[in-house]
Amino acid sequence: MTYPRDMQAPGVPPSAQRCRLPALALTVALASMPACAQFSMPGGTGQVLDTSTGLPIGGAAVTLECFHTLPGHGAAKVRDVATVTAQSGTYKFSFLDVMGCDHGFVHAAKAGYQESGAIHVGYAYTSYGQIPRFRYLTADADVVMLRLTAITPSRTGNFFKPNGSTDHASEYRQWYEALFQAKAIAKTERERNFVRERYCETLPRLYSAMNEKERAEAANFRVSYQWRGVSREGRHDYEGQVLGYCTP
Predict the structure, then answer these.
(1) Beta strand pairing status for 44-50 and 134-139?
(2) Domains in the chain, please, with CATH?
(3) Would the pTM count as exceeding 0.85?
(4) From CA 64, how far away is CA 77, in angstroms rounded?
(5) Left, alpha or beta for 59 (phi > 0: left; psi -120 to 50: alpha)?
(6) How far, in Å, are 81, 205, 239 from residue 182 at the CA level?
(7) What distances in angstroms separate CA 228 from CA 115, 181, 231, one per listed residue?
(8) What are 1-12's pLDDT values in tens digits?
């Protein structure tokens, strides 16, 4: 799994046409613009990469939604500018493309792929005042694996009680809630193996570390998730949901 070298924002690009202005029009436009509107975000280049392989994706549609901040508050769309990546996965938006825009949103799309930022928050970006160096797409076949990576806690040892001791109950709940979604979306053997490897040692260990009061309280909590238009709710069930899934 390749991880992002900068940040990016999720979205789906609208249909757009590339906007180019001749030099004379540029001069006239700049002269007629208010001083505050002449400060544009810089043009720049970027590259679209496959999240799973790290390889460039050629032929991807890249759209820049270009905005100008209004006095007081709010923003107005100036234009949409569209381009297609080269075989090297690279794209470019020139100064003419971003003229009059102080921030924008760059989206990438290609048939058979989904934008990674909509699946994993680690691929979302917030540097809207510049052209992102990298945008990531995930092949349809790898979407669930990326989602599993996104929802699985990175480690234990994140929760503590006021006295400084580890809060096993809170950690157990975090991992159990993640398992509730992971089990539901993992369909292939590869995906199921990922879930078992990540959860089937950690959850029983955390449950064993809880005292009787914490286990009794855990029996009453409810879990839920929503993803890709699907919502699901359930109650805590250690025997059925954890041991039943993890025991061969």
Answers:
(1) parallel
(2) 23-139 (2.60.40.1120), 152-246 (no CATH)
(3) no
(4) 11
(5) left
(6) 38, 19, 17
(7) 13, 12, 9
(8) 554 544 443 333
